[in-house]
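Work Package 3 (structural annotation) set out to generate three-dimensional models for the target panel prioritized at the project kickoff. During this period the team completed the workflow that converts sequence records into discrete structure tokens, so that structures can be stored uniformly alongside our sequence database. As a representative example, we reproduce one entry of 398 residues exactly as it appears in the project archive.
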Amino acid sequence: MPGHTRLELGGLLGVMLASFTVPLTVAYNVGAIVREFGASVAQAGVVATAQGLGTAVGALAASRLVSRVRSRRLFVLGLLALVISNALSSVAPGVQWLTVLQATGGIGTGAVVAVVMATAARTARPEMTYGLINGSLGALIVVLGFVMPQVIELGGAKGAYLLYAGIAAAGLLAAMVAPDITSGHGYDSDHRHQAGLDFEQKNRVVRASFVALTGFGIFFFAQAGVGAFVERVGAASGVALTSIGHVFAVGGVLTIVGPLIAGWIGARFGATLPLILVTASLCGVLFGLMIVNSPLSFFISSPLFTVLPAILMPSFLGALAVIDRTGQSSAMQPAFATLGGAFGPLAAGMIVQWGGFDALGWYSIAIFLVGSVLMATATMGADKQRPRDTSDLMESRI
């Protein structure tokens, strides 16, 4: 991470991990809420949706503030919102209060994640930084997979939210050593570069970023829709629940290594090639998972479906960092991904009810292709721009 120390990189990763525990444990939280509060599955789903929509709102707000407010201040404010909302969630009297509190915590999550993404965009090799971030999230998924069932068994939903509050509080320590993007590290040079663009060039950057982010949201709309039914697909093909859990664990382990490798590839071969390869692979995986729908295809396809979107993230976010050096487009990425993820399962459920899992497979393949074509507006632009300005970009970062 040129231009930043290893301590600062560790702080950035610590802040990210501390802010993202609730979104990574939705499956555990929903079941715990049902048992703890006597809520229906639909009511527990509303809590998760409120948290996701809050994340989108927080990310959009932070993306507008990131160029004017010190990043450490935003980190602290976002993490404090998480500490308070999760601590109060542990003593919430009912599911209605829990919904409000988790929506508030989602705003804190979105703010922190947006600033982390904007900070990573201003490094000399953003693909590698994003690879480290996504690899670290993969490791956290594996750890939480072992920890959360024990915590919920002992303390229920209230114990889980108390743990989330404690993790967010620990993140405040990481925030003290995380990079401060308004105090150097290429921030001023990035904005001088952006200010040097004429009006039409700035409009092209904004249009390309918006189109690509829309495609990114569509991509995760399809991914979340399929992801919500993967367990049901395995059960329908005759795979035992314990075996499904083992398959999910394999996918979690792959998400540790996959993004790191993808960051290395993206930094050397550009962003469009990984986009093409991942999209083609996802289409093949979906065919095996949803249409062939056999135990063997599930064992092979399910872990690949988990890791392929994570592999795509570093190169795509690196492309956004190249075409928009201010980091504002990268900061908006969590909002688009969260909105797509919030509504994907609803649409997928309607497709499954209408035509079954094979219909969901064909539908998702089409949606992935549409999203990838839109995302290519950023990757192709970045690949064209990168050769002619790499030396200037490196000088501004070091």
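The chain has two domains: 6-175, 187-397.
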